[in-house]
Amino acid sequence: xxxxxxxxxxAVDRPGGVVLDQSKQLDLMWGIKIPMRDGTLxxxxxxxxxxxxxxxxxxxxxxxxxxxTYHERGIYFAQHDYAFALVDVRGRGNSEGEFEPMVNExxxxxxxxxxxxxxxxxxxxxxxxxxxxxGFDQWSTLKEFxxxxxxxxxxxxxxxxxxxxxxxxxGASYFMQWLTYTSGxxxxxxLFAEADFWTQKFMEMYLNHLPFKDLDKIAGNTSTHFQTWLxxxxxxxxxxxxxxxxxxxxxxxxxxxxxxxxYDGDQNGAMGLYKLHMAHGSPEAIRAHYLVIxxxxxxxxxxPRKSFGGLTFGDASxxxxxxxxxxxxxxxxxxxxxxxxLKDRVSYxxxxxxxxxxxxxxxxxxxxxxxxxxxxxxDGAGDVFHSGHLLTKLTESxxxxxxxxxxxxxxxxxxxxxxxxxxxxxxxxxxxxxGAGVVFHTEPFNEAVELSGYTKLHAWMSLDxxxxxxxxxxxxxxxxxxxxxxxxxxxxxxxxxGTRHEELxxxxxxxxxxxxxxxxxxxxxxxxxxxxxxxxxxxSPQTEKNYxxxxxxxxxxxxxxxxxxxxxxxxxxxxxxxxxxxxx
Length: 584
Description:
Number of helices: 15
Largest sheet: 11 strands, mixed
Mean pLDDT: 93
Radius of gyration: 24 Å
């Protein structure tokens, strides 16, 4: 796996070469031990301005990836009149204790905040920096309400039980890889980045139809918390303890800057936390919460790049994140000016026009939700060459039937997650669904149209098995036939009423499946382009396989496999439709 792929996984932080300014003298405080309330000592590496004539605010990051990975951030902020503490979470790096992912970060973040605020070189103001796991840490610390935490900037934040480690309660093979990366006290970077090894192990499970619960044994590392996570698949007390409550959101009273990307793998986490604060926060706190949504993948939320995954964006996408953070900290802790980039409470990038737009709220990005009704020709909508239609008016048509056989492992059935593909532009997997899905197209657009916000799919379906997993993808198809992934969603049938409500399917019963977990996107669809909607069952080595038997999915294997026959309805009684967010 290349360094680029490693960055996509969110496990390292490389701002692209911060240069040490020799005119700005720094001090290093090595091996500083920060005491936690239970006596555990967390290790910190601290950079600060040398011989400063005044005290300064302290920034800290709380990371399981070993503090050295944030070295260049520490250098940058120390050169700009801040102290920066790189703190290893308990049980990682040189910190004491046992690492249990996400369990202790809130309390430990509180203790680190108050310790830093009491240091003679700190002016009593503390903030945090970081994305992905370190974005979650900021929310987790904030919910403990340390008195000296003055602001947070959570970037690409994971949200336990929402997008991590089981998105929509469906297991992802990657998290065994991540758990091995964070096993023990060292970085394990080379093992984490050994793409061929992880592909081999995920394929071993997939091709041999082994149960997902055995993935830790297959990978050769049973020392992780993988089995604990399987026992707590969905939202509940275990995960809820890590996250803010509605009452917490109502009490938050510090400025917050949330940052995420169109292709951020943790976008649902970052936006889930943001939307809960918007729903339950006080009017004053809501006014002090800003949101930036750029054309970035997970790593790009911290160090934007113009090109990734087959996509290329304009120069305006290259926001200087160090500078934006500094301006935010200056504004909220030093009485400086509000960052000029934040022209309204929501800043969002329109791909296609390569420009930024601004809105007072998330809802204000979208002018209307326009329905497009699914319609199939007489011979069905089985592939891109014999597809169905997305129509602006409801028109009767016969239902489609597609088949998902869990034992079907033919190459090309579902390869969208394979790292060898360009994940946002390569659509080879959709050219032949082997009967395991359906495809619908709009007519070519007569003029360019901006789509900004969340799409939603209402699909009326029946099954002849008690459970299965669905995936839905939406693409722009350009006039030359090339494709651009816009957004995706997944859904396990038994959780159709919500991730906290499990109810198996009554075979033959027609149910409405509402796919409302799509990622937010903002793009101007070109004149002459079409949209492509692909609805299929999940069948991938990258994802826990549902063998459709209705038991505990992680325990099912090929011996339990049942073939699912899925009927998708689109008529007056069952008006399956895609709702598109038309931009303002």
